[in-house]
Amino acid sequence: MRCDRAPALTLVILHLLGVLASSWRHRENLPKAMFDGNKKKLQ
User: Residue 31's domain spans which residues?
Assistant: First the structure.
């Protein structure tokens, strides 16, 4: 049963890494924007 969760966990980790990379590349704080709805440029 433990092996059944590995693909899903891998996708979650890849998704989080993609969000962080996109946030860094576009200089936006995307994780914060998910909570407050405002995308602001990082300084």
Answer: 2-36
- Whether this prediction's pTM lies above 0.70 is answered by no
Whether 8 maps to a domain, the answer reads yes
R_g over Cα of the chain: 14
Helix segments in 1-43, DSSP class H? 6-25, 30-36
Q: CA torsion, points 11, 16, 21, 26, in degrees to nearest 10?
A: 120
Residuewise pLDDT in 10s, the chain (43 residues)? 567 888 999 999 999 999 889 888 888 887 778 788 887 666 6
The answer to whether residue 22 sits within a structural domain is yes
The answer to whether residue 16 sits within a structural domain is yes
